[in-house]
């Protein structure tokens, strides 16, 4: 495939490619700045192909750096700035990289990053430093090989053991194609990106922009009031959200609605509860629920807004290039698609364990199809509790308690129990401590008795990954403390 940015700069040079805080770049202007940055990066990158770590923020500096590194044929290891130095050092060691580029804005959000070079014994460069380096002739890859690794991204690590996922140009291309077939593609589309570009939810928007020739409205961080204003004032057509973002936007939804061109929210991370779904329907606010993962370069299953009420709790049906099946014995969801990763970084044995004998990828999620072939995800295989011989999935309990008016967030973990083997424990965020008897009484209306948490713990917040998934292992650790 021809270099995507080069191609768009030729096909649609005057079309808007990026918008950030009122400033606009056409594809031609974006390409020009990327070429200059390409030349400057050669002062610190003396060989290609190679791997370079990047601590990116949702800023033009990070956006341009990703495009410049991609254009040089460099494998970009996207790192999560929210991690501790210990977690980052483990990922940097696994990736076998000797230098990391850091967006300047991140050091005010994670002060530990100033010590990254000392702790990891690698070379660290702030993106502002690169601006002052000498210019060299750009070294641009004219074509991308299908199986060439474009990006490496670590999984969310909800179980505490993240893997470095290899993502090829083929993976990104077919992910974009599946999304276009699912959502449709219009000439005036403008995608608002407030999800992190170091995560697949944000990076996939960048890749779609290059493949579709579509502008991206980049927002540095999610603030519901600011986002609401942008959705009203600018011709945004699509926005990616996770459930927590959607719920906050619904709280400040304007009576006049959003701009007339707005088409939908693309929801990832987890399915929304029925109460939130019905609120969206009442507001005539289209929500496309989806299911995907880092290993599939974003969505592989989606539920249209028209089907939402007929399949409450479902994530939908597989997108066009995706094959889906359920293992009859384990009930694990298995996928076969051109956007599935070819492997894990330095962990080929771990990846091979996730492949079936006939080449399907085992997702680690348990699910089932209903009679209409809608997919229902019951929960992660490793998160399932077995209590007194009964299988319990945290998601089911969490969805039940989503309707408790005082609770803003709720998560369930399993802990060992001498009598039952395991029992569920509920963690909730609320403005005040709720009596256990009230929470138990509420649970009895919605759940079988054995599914009701045996203990409820009030917390200030739920620890989450970049995609909004709860880090259950951290809650268990907090309980032990």
Low-confidence stretches: none
Tally of contiguous helical segments = 15
Biggest sheet strand order reads 2-1-10-9-11-12-13-14-15
Name of the CATH architecture of the largest domain:
3-Layer(aba) Sandwich
Query: Mean pLDDT, as a whole number?
Result: 91
Fraction of helical residues: 25-40%
Radius of gyration, Cα only, in angstroms?
23 Å
**Count of individual beta strands:** 24
Describe the structure.
With 481 residues, the chain is α/β, with parallel strands linked by helices. The protein has three domains: 4-144, 3-Layer(aba) Sandwich (Rossmann fold), CATH 3.40.50; 170-380, Rossmann fold; 384-480, ANL, C-terminal domain (GMP Synthetase, Chain A, domain 3). The protein has 15 helices and 24 strands. It has helices at residues 4-11, 27-41, 60-71, 85-95, 116-120, 127-131, 169-183, 200-212, 224-233, 243-251, 274-282, 348-352, 394-401, 436-446, 472-480; strands spanning 16-20, 23-26, 51-55, 75-79, 99-102, 123-126, 149-154, 164-168, 191-193, 216-218, 238-241, 264-267, 287-293, 298-303, 317-318, 323-326, 332-336, 361-369, 375-380, 385-387, 390-392, 409-417, 421-429, 455-458. A nine-stranded mixed sheet has the order 2-1-10-9-11-12-13-14-15. Strand 13 and strand 14 (298-303) form a beta hairpin. Helix 1 runs antiparallel to helix 2, helix 2 (27-41) packs across helix 3 and helix 7 (169-183) packs across helix 8 (200-212). The longest helix has 15 residues, at 27-41. The radius of gyration is 23 Å and the shape is globular. 45% of the residues are buried. The mean pLDDT is 91. GO terms for molecular function: ATP binding; medium-chain fatty acid-CoA ligase activity; o-succinylbenzoate-CoA ligase activity. The chain crosses the membrane at residues 61-81. InterPro entries: AMP-bd_C (IPR025110), AMP-bd_C_sf (IPR045851), AMP-dep_synth/lig_dom (IPR000873), ANL_N_sf (IPR042099), MenE (IPR010192).
């Amino acid at each position: 495939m021809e270099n995507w940015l080069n191609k768009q700069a030729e096909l649609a040079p005057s079309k808007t490619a990026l918008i950030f805080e009122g400033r606009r770049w056409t594809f031609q202007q974006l390409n020009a700045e990327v070429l200059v940055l390409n030349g400057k990066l050669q002062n610190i990158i003396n060989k290609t192909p190679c791997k370079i770590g990047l601590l990116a923020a949702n800023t033009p500096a990070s956006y341009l750096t990703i495009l410049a590194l991609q254009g040089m044929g460099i494998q970009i290891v996207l790192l999560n700035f929210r991690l501790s130095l210990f977690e980052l050092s483990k990922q940097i060691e696994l990736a076998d990289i000797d230098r990391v580029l850091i967006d300047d804005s991140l050091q005010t959000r994670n002060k530990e990053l100033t010590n990254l070079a000392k702790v990891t014994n690698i070379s660290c460069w702030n993106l502002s430093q690169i601006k002052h380096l000498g210019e060299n002739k750009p070294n641009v890859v004219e074509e991308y090989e299908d199986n060439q690794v474009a990006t490496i991204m670590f999984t969310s690590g909800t179980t505490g053991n993240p893997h470095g996922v290899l993502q090829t140009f083929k993976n990104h291309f077919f992910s974009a194609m599946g999304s276009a077939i699912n959502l449709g593609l219009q000439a005036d589309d403008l995608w608002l990106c407030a999800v992190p570009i170091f995560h697949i939810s944000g990076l996939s928007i960048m890749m779609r922009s290059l493949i579709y020739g579509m502008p991206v409205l980049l927002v540095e961080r999610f603030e519901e009031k600011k986002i609401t204003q942008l959705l009203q004032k600018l011709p945004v057509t699509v926005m990616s959200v996770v459930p927590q973002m959607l719920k906050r936007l619904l709280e400040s939804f304007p009576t006049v609605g959003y701009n007339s061109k707005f088409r939908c929210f693309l929801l990832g991370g987890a399915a929304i509860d029925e109460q939130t779904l019905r609120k969206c329907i009442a507001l005539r606010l289209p929500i496309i629920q989806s299911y995907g993962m880092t290993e599939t370069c974003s969505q592989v299953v989606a539920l249209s807004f028209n089907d939402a009420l007929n399949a409450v709790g479902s994530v939908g049906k597989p997108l066009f290039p995706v094959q889906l099946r359920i293992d009859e014995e384990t009930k694990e969801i298995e996928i076969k698609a051109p956007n599935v990763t070819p492997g894990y970084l330095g962990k080929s044995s771990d990846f091979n364990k996730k492949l079936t004998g006939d080449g399907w990828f085992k997702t680690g999620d348990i699910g089932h199809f209903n009679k209409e072939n809608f997919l229902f995800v019951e929960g992660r295989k490793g998160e399932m509790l077995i209590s007194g011989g009964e299988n319990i999935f945290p998601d089911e309990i969490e969805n039940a308690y989503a309707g408790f008016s005082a609770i803003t967030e709720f998560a369930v973990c399993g802990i060992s129990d001498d009598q039952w083997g395991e029992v569920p424990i509920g963690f909730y965020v609320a403005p005040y401590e709720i009596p256990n008897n009230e929470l138990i009484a509420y649970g009895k209306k919605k759940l079988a008795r054995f599914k009701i948490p045996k203990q409820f713990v009030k917390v200030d917040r739920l620890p989450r990954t970049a995609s909004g998934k709860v880090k259950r292992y951290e809650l268990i650790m907090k309980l032990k403390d």
